[in-house]
Amino acid sequence: MVFRYPVPFPNGKGTVNYVHLPIRDDGDVRIMFTVVAQSPPPNTIEMYCQTSSIDYHPVPSSFTTPLHIESLGPSQHMVEKNTSSPMYMQSYDNDMEPIVRVDMIGVTESIVMTVENYVDILPRNDDDNVELFDEDDGNEDIMDMKDNENIENDASLLGGGEHDVLPQYLEIELGYIWAVKCKKWSEGCNWRLRACRRKCHGLFEITKYIGPHTCIYPKLSQDHSQLDSTFIAREVQNVVQSDHTISIAALHQIVKDKFGYNVHYKRIWEAKRKAIIRIFGDWDESYQTLPRWMNIVKLTNPGTKVVWKTSVLAGCNGNVRFMHVFWVFRACVEGFKHCRPVIQVDDTFLYGKYIGKLLIATSINANGHIFPLAFAIVEEESSDSWSWFLHTLRTQVTQRECICLISDHHVGIQAAIRDPNVGWSPPYAHHQYCLKHVVSNFNDKYRNKMLKDLVYRVGSQHQPRKYEACMTELKRLDEKYLEWFNRLNTKKWTLAHDGGHQYGWMITNIVECINGVLKGARMLPITALLRLTFYRCVSYFETRRTEIQTRMANGDLYTSYTINKMTKYESRASGHTVNIFHRSNEIFEVTTAPHGFHMDKGNNIQIVRLKERTCTCNKWQSFGIPCSHVLVVCTRARIDSWQFIDKHYRMDVYACCYTPQFNPIPDQAYWPEPNFPIVHHNPTLVRDKGRPRSSRIRNEMDWREPSVKVRCGLCKQEGHNR
């Protein structure tokens, strides 16, 4: 409530024209008088009254209460008490705010008594509208506070300049007074701030602010000592939580836009690390939390497999040191039973506090999308780690035979494949090299763009005669190129000789794609990383289920990948001609149509054997989808060509891949303690501070996180800079 009650001053210097009477629960009433002086600047007198709460009854006139009047002038601290006369009465009502009745005569007498001891402050600024600080500059109770990383001083950032924190703990009725002033006070900057801690809520209220700074530097790019990493971590925590992959440069710009200071890169990096710890937990403690998380996932999602590899800590019973961990979710294991028998494996670096590798195994669904299968964290990529991962993959995930395993040319993977105890040797599995890695290794040696494209065409040819033609062209250019390929097994990197095990998939870039999906997880603590793989798989399965239900509701019997290929082959089949050699044995000869632009192409003869499900073009065997030669034969023989499509492409089989569901994880308070030793990190794997110096020679196969797109400064379009 605000009462406008002019009160004349005895010395004629001004009048009091505002009275604020906010009532608090503790029965105190704060009366603030703004003194409008004849000579500027205006000043404030604060008086505090204490009341007695009497519900539903007015305070009798004979009841007296103390009146505490405080005047904090520039050179005095006067407290006057008057208990001789009633100052106000109050009553309460259930539906109304408290009613305060003030005896303004007594208030006027108190004001007069206060003003008689009040000393005006001489103006220090030419601007009459600026209120000057009403504290004594020479007060010995004020002392400077040094910049400290642990001091939280939000109010000290007001005004954007530099200032000292000057705590002034004056024992008054209501709490403490806290004051700050600019560091450039001695140089003429008048920026000051005063706050008082209130007992009603325990917080500081700003009661006086004089600004803005008059010491603004011409350069706003300098750092600020009180913008420490802890303070910045609190400011950017919500941003990091919504996108923990945000770059340091982006966070730096956010801090600069908000506070106007160019904070050092290392401090922003440390602030992001602290923010990640606040959100996802500490790296060291995360190792001890990991067994509990794995245990609750196994309990809530039966069928989930977790395999540990640890070493015993000498002299510490019940404590082990982390080495490897492998995990696969039940829904992934059950869904892979309906996928094509193809598994791709790859690895990626971890960017957190500790050095390590994330090993990933994926498959391909009937629509050409990735199917997440299994994950593992190892200390390093070696023959032992790959043998352990592939052996665990064989024993815990699938025992299917004739699985095609696609990988790069890493020596650790090759050593694991050659070991019969691992379980990926023929006839249980067929190992194939990623064609893109083969081409990249060839290009690293010879550095020729034309040769690189030619080698890619060599490996992706479906027909052996076309493969031989490309190899002849390589030999014509230089025989040393053939010597390089002679060291590779032709069946492991060419589509013409793979026997149809790869289903037409020659590269592991799908695993590179999942590296992109999990790129944000690679910098998180280990438990947060595992949790992210769980929830990403949950989201991925739900997205695919929705897509499948929509297509099945539209009446589709096969996946869109299959329909697109059949449509393309049907357009080619219209120009083919068919000769029937044996209708009962279903043997046909197909002559392809001549090419419209190249006279040397077309007019080729392909042999189709429907009973054996083969065509000499080798595309039927590679993809499991009838080629254009089979389609023209089926049209001539009046046979339904869709019956020759591999069963994995049917929508009902495709839906079975994502039918298994994940169960939610309860709150951490309900996690039982597992019967597992305490896991500790390996201290030798702590990553050094600063940007790591890499000795690896990178090529186009190394996956890079996407950077900011180049944008033209003239037309503002992406893809070019001018």
UniProtKB/TrEMBL annotation:
Name the SMART domains on file: ZnF_PMZ (SM00575)
Q: Where is the SWIM-type domain?
A: 606-638
Under InterPro entries, the record lists: MULE_transposase_dom, Znf_PMZ, Znf_SWIM
Q: Keywords in UniProt for this one?
A: Metal-binding, Zinc, Zinc-finger
An annotated Gene Ontology molecular function: zinc ion binding
Q: Which PANTHER family match?
A: MUDR FAMILY TRANSPOSASE, POLYPROTEIN, PUTATIVE-RELATED
- Protein name per the record: SWIM-type domain-containing protein
